[in-house]
């Protein structure tokens, strides 16, 4: 076999070598192109992930600031509610100092104290709740509002003999807020719960009036408390916060029974005190009452 001759095997080997050398640049180009596409895709994925992480951080930072602000506001609202409760109780205590001889003076002082509670403490609560959803923080300020309703209705009843309405109470709150914002409004639930507490104070007031001989006023209180109990008996089952109201209704019934027992005791045993009546026959001396 001569060197210049070529066999079929040699030709095939050369042909494969030529094909490999010819296709190598194309393969290198494809590999480079694939690597570049992978790098671009990876960079794009990293950029998208970074943007998503930044968005999540901003969102959580916003929620953190909102919740921290809401918690701080709740603490301020709780403090304002406690101040309203404390000073409203002082108004109620002032009303209980009332007697036959100093009624006008005591009620005038109680009315001034109630106006001070409205102007100083309730106004602070109104300003704290401006521009917010009142129901979010209702549990924080509800006890103070209920005590304020109790004090306001007690003063109004002692002066006029009537029950102050919810609309009239809310009308007193409108001047406390800025004209451009929605004012805090006492909701019907807090108003009813405040009325339920009012009956306990009226029971104490009625017992005191019986002891001072103001029987007509005591009978008026008895009729008033009966009417409140009768009306709330129809409303209580329809209330959402029925568990709390049920306890108040049981206490209210006990207050009604105590007032009735005191009035009936004087009515039945009144003849025992006829010789001790004053010259004008307008009042009785303090009575030894057996009240359960």
TrEMBL record:
SUPFAM superfamilies: Translin. The keyword Nucleus applies. Coiled coil: none annotated. The keyword Cytoplasm applies. One of its GO terms (cellular component) is cytoplasm. Belongs to the translin family. This is Translin-associated protein X. It comes from Cuscuta campestris.
